[in-house]
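Late entry, written up from scratch paper. The run itself happened at the end of the previous shift, but nothing got recorded in the book at the time, so transcribing now.
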Amino acid sequence: MQSKILVSACLMGHAVRYDGRAKPLLHPAIETWRAEGRLVTICPEMSAGMTVPRPRAEIAEAASGEEVLAGKARVVELTGADVTEEFLQAAKNAVTLARQTGCHYALLIDGSPSCGSGFVYDGTFSGRKQTGNGVTAAALKAAGVEVFSDREIELLIERIAQ
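Output as recorded:
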């Protein structure tokens, strides 16, 4: 049986991003995996009850998703509202779904304070990027799911072929 792939809903064309838009990833592998029934779609934030649109959020003080999971950092909106609990619930939901559906891999949108796996923004809302994981990406990795960003789809294709 082929392993399933947890995928960010925005990459599948769902308008679930904070700004109410999608960011579809157009790649032949996506269509192949969809036809094979291997894709499991989630927007972690929406699974935790967050609305669309919603204020932009970042992990505060140049911290990482791992630090949020450890209780050492928080996620804040541009408005200043603390949404750490929502992001922790989102991560928990994603891990639960991955386990329930047999997802050994995840293909997530990079840059998100939830799904980012190559980079996240530094918490200043200035557009500055830093290497690191979002909260959901960190939780999935900790749970043994191999996480790939949308920019790493070729690496995921190679990994699945092994």
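Strands lie at 4-8, 39-42, 57-59, 75-77, 103-108, 119-121, 129-131, 146-149.
(Scratch paper discarded after transcription.)
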